[in-house]
Amino acid sequence: MKVLAFEDGYDIEALLVSGSVDMTKIDFLQHWNSKDFLNVIKQFSPEILLLDHFMPPTKGYDLLVALNDAVKRKEIQRPNKIVAMSSEQRANDKMLSIGADEGIIKFDLASLEFWP
């Protein structure tokens, strides 16, 4: 399973490990900013995309808008699952409203059912 996280403040892999997710079955990559995010997504081609809302220079919401547009133009393949993982549920709800598949407080990320 390939997982790409855009998160600038917390080590997402450490959060998953502390939540007992078996990382040996996950090809995990975290970007600590959202520079050149479409190329990062295209090159890594994740199955699961984790998006923080409050992240420089492009917020997760705006990143998802741009990703949706690129998918519509067939410039990039949409990840199988997009997870909004802000520390504020309102921010997750905003991303859910434009196509995120899951919205969860990032500290509860390990509780999602799709982890190996």
- Label the overall shape: globular
Total DSSP helices: 4
Largest sheet: 5 strands, parallel
Distance between the termini: 9 Å
Residue share in β-strands: 15-25%
The helix/strand series, from N terminus to C terminus, equals: EHEHEHEHE
Mean pLDDT: 96
Question: Into which percent range does the helicity of residues fall?
Answer: 25-40%
In terms of structural class, how would the helical and strand content be classed?
A: alpha/beta
Strand order of the largest sheet: 2-1-3-4-5
Rounded to an integer in angstroms, the radius of gyration calculated over CA atoms is 13 Å
Q: pLDDT below 50 for ≥5 consecutive residues: which ranges?
A: none
Q: How many strands in all?
A: 5
Structure description:
By secondary structure, this protein is of the alpha/beta class. Helix content is 31%, strand content 17%. It contains four helices and five strands, in the order βαβαβαβαβ. A five-stranded parallel sheet has the order 2-1-3-4-5. The longest helix is centred in the middle third of the chain and has 13 residues, at 60-72. The protein is globular. The N and C termini lie close together (9 Å).
